[in-house]
Write a structure and sequence with these properties.
This protein has 89 residues and is an alpha+beta fold. Helices cover 22% and strands 30% of the residues. Strands 1-2-3 form a three-stranded antiparallel β-sheet, with no helix packed on it. Strand 2 and strand 3 form a beta hairpin. The mean pLDDT is 84.
Length: 89
């Protein structure tokens, strides 16, 4: 019988020493993530926009779009939607 963690039939067994190494690495990474502090799920996107004024610089050639605007969004019940939009000073 080979030492190591049980796996579904047909898969290789993970030797005890490799399992111990992976568990140590897991604990190290977990500690590093916990030290980051407050974090939230979601995405921050940088956006540049075009307005509706035909004579604006954003319609020039080449265009100089408005922005950057930053938008924080996240998924709720499987649907993504923006929560906050702000402009960097």
């Amino acid at each position: 019988m080979t030492a190591g963690i049980d796996t579904p039939e047909g898969e290789r067994k993970v030797p005890d020493d490799e399992l111990a190494r992976l568990e140590r690495r897991y604990r190290e990474l977990k500690k590093r993530l916990q030290s980051l502090g407050f974090a939230v799920a979601g995405t921050i996107t940088e956006r540049y926009t075009v307005c509706g004024k035909a004579s604006c610089r954003c319609h020039a050639d080449p265009p100089q779009r408005h922005g950057p605007y930053y938008q924080y969004s996240r998924k709720v019940a499987g649907n993504g939607f923006p929560l906050v939009t702000w402009r960097r000073p």
